[in-house]
Design brief:
The protein is α+β, with helices and mostly antiparallel strands. The protein has 2 domains: 3-78, ACT domain (Alpha-Beta Plaits); 82-154, Alpha-Beta Plaits, CATH 3.30.70.1150. Helices cover 26% and strands 43% of the residues. It is built from 4 helices and 9 strands, in the order βαββαββαββαββ. It has helices spanning 17-27, 56-68, 100-106, 127-136, and strands at residues 3-12, 32-39, 45-54, 72-76, 81-92, 109-114, 118-125, 144-147, 151-154. Strands 5, 6, 7, 8 and 9 form a 5-stranded antiparallel β-sheet that branches. Strands 2-3-1-4 form a 4-stranded antiparallel β-sheet, covered by helices on one side. A hairpin with a 5-residue loop joins β2 (32-39) and β3 (45-54). The protein is elongated. It catalyses: 2 pyruvate + H(+) = (2S)-2-acetolactate + CO2. One of its GO terms (molecular function) is acetolactate synthase activity. Belongs to the acetolactate synthase small subunit family.
């Protein structure tokens, strides 16, 4: 049975760390569903937010291997996280936008950009709610969808 797991990894902010972590996953045949990396302000560290899936044995192995990497400072794989994901959706201006405002409001969304051909909307919410938003926005015939990885913070 495949379980979705969110892992926060604090690493020393140095060259090659991301390659070593992604290589750890690839070398063992583990999949990364989403990966987001950003430096932690006023420190020499970066936070990697990793969403992966597998059975309990695989997930335990992933965490053990992450602990073994030299630049790893801390691995947080349990506890409470605030997790958000973002999506951008490009919709042709020729569509009937009745109901779009209500959908955007329901999913913490806004119109971020327009030009003579398209509008671009953005939503930021929980991963499962982003999935539901993308289903509900299909009626507007989007021509492009970009989905960002999860960002997480332990609380």
């Amino acid at each position: 049975m495949s379980i979705r797991r969110t892992i926060s990894v604090i690493v020393l902010n140095e060259h090659g760390v991301l390659a070593r972590i992604s290589g750890l996953f690839a070398g063992r045949g583990y999949n990364i569903d989403t990966l987001t990396v950003a430096p932690i302000p006023e420190s020499n560290f970066s936070r990697l937010s990793i969403v992966t899936s597998g059975d309990e044995r695989v997930l335990e192995q992933i965490v053990k291997q992450l602990h073994k990497l030299i630049p790893t400072y801390k691995v947080i794989e349990s506890g409470e996280f605030v997790e958000k994901e973002m999506a951008l959706v490009k919709i042709p201006l020729g569509e009937n936008f009745a109901g779009l405002e209500a959908i955007l409001k329901s999913y913490n969304g806004i119109v971020t950009n327009t030009n003579e051909n398209y509008i671009v909307v953005m939503v930021a919410d929980d991963a499962s709610r982003i999935e539901n938003f993308l289903k509900s926005i299909k009626k507007f015939n989007p021509v492009d969808v970009v989905r960002g990885g999860s960002v997480i913070m332990d609380i």
